[in-house]
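User: Predict the complex with UFG.
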Amino acid sequence: MKILVTGGTGFIGSHTVVELQNRGYQVVIVDNLSNSDAKIVDSIEKITGTRPTLEVFDLVDREKTADFFKRHNDLKGIIHFAAFKAVGESVQFPLKYYRNNLDSLVNILEAMKENNIPNFVFSSSCTVYGQPEELPVSEKAPIQKAESPYGNTKQISEEIITDTVKVTDIHAIALRYFNPIGAHESALIGELPIGVPNNLVPFITQTAIGLRQQLSVFGEDYHTHDGTAVRDYIHVVDLAKAHVVAIDRMVNHKMKKPLEIFNLGTGIGYSVLDVINAFEKVSGLKLNYKIVARREGDIEKVWANPDFSNRELGWKADRNLEEMVDSAWKWEQAFRGKTIKPE
Ligand code: UFG
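Assistant: Here is the predicted structure with UFG placed in the model:
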């Protein structure tokens, strides 16, 4: 069965391609390589023994998208990762984000309808919940006004999908990710932000390897156990496996309604200092960090109630925080060709 993975050379996309191929699916990747490298396909081939097909073009281009779908009208499903995801950049360049993240979605859904392709998995985010009133947060929690244009594209995308499944034969699963971190155990694929990382774990590993001077910890006056902000970090391999389960569910006609929404998290909240401590433990290094002011737009604390996805999908994130940071650290060292010895 052939599955399209858009953004399949990116962080979560590449790990998902590996898991899909391990499960026997045939994968075609579409990626414009705006934040990734075509060489990832070599690494995927090394891990799985199978080379996925890669087509390089921009899904914002309606004609190219329509042409691609005509040539691949035997697709059984689509997992749509391709999107811009930098929160801060989206505040500065909102139109870039709306154009990229929304036009591509509309083009794909149109082409699916045109070619009778039934199954769509969408990369959504816990950002749709904002700062929830109740924790852990379940799928029933109200959507709150987005803090950034990036977050807004995820909300609008969910609305576009909701409206579309009502009047077409398209079935969709929206997966709301909490904070994906870590890397594949082979250390052949991982997270590779272009430029200065925005996210915590790549900033930690780049500091430890010597690429960055110091990590800034944003805020220590939150109402949490140690004053730093709390998130639900989830291993990217666990997250990737959930996508395969979602595709299996769709192709085996196990969905209970045309649009299903699932939280993908562990159910455990860790603070920024917890993550740093876990990193120091697995690496044997002291991380150079300092506490600075809060980062604008950050929420205080969020973690998932994963009960519904655990029950309905028969899936559970089972890799712990130490495994997450250890794999991210191994990947950083392998990628840079450097080994940093414990102190
Ligand atoms: N943090 C630091 N220092 C850093 C980077 C982050 O202290 O240098 C803190 C943040 O303040 C936050 C925590 O680490 O408390 C996690 O921050 P991330 O930037 O790693 O992730 P966010 O929780 O901010 O998640 C956001 C959006 C998601 C989006 C994700 C990836 O909410 O929707 O970024 O871009 F998917």
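DSSP finds eleven helices and 13 strands in the chain.
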